[in-house]
Amino acid sequence: MEIELVPPSEPLDWARGGWLCPPVRAEEGPGGELIVEPAAESDFWRRTSYGFVHDNGPALLAPLPVGSAMEVSFRLDLTGQFDQAGALVRVDERTWTKAGVEMSDGELQLGAVVTREFSDWSVAPVPEWSSRQVTVRVSRAGDALTVRARVDDEPWRLVRLAPLDPAAEATAGPFCCAPVRAGLTVVFTGWRQGPADTALHPEH
């Protein structure tokens, strides 16, 4: 049984957000989409396994209060190692979650990185999503952040359930990174906000 989610009722204008680490280029396209080019060697990661801290990816962020959900949509066209795009939820440089699609070892991967001083990473292959529209949904309710994603109008997939302090002030929005190359361009096609998910699982 597919879970039913309340569609976000408020489209967000790109001007509603503020840039964390401005990109090389960000411009509005003829259809209202946002075209973003991140700098080479841009990424979000903190310590685990690799030993480094990267906190320089471009992200367009707006408030994500408790009781709200946000959706970010983009056209999936990633070709370089670790090219990535999706939604970032940020409290500070030590507490954040990024979720979306990343090119890893030659294959498109749907996944999330949850960081609380140290980053973790989980992925699942989605080669069939190539060249289609992906939507990432982050929903904040109580002490939890629920991350879902889908391609086109297919059913939502649960990507991650992560803790998020209900007292924390968080922002969220579209992000993209190009850790190993220059020239990546990501076309974001939508940014919406609405009420948080009412359930984690479908009712039986």
From TrEMBL:
Pfam families: DUF1349
Gene3D superfamilies the UniProt entry points to: 2.60.120.200
InterPro entries according to UniProt: ConA-like_dom_sf, DUF1349
Domain of life: Bacteria
Name of the protein in its database record: DUF1349 domain-containing protein
Organism: Micromonospora cremea
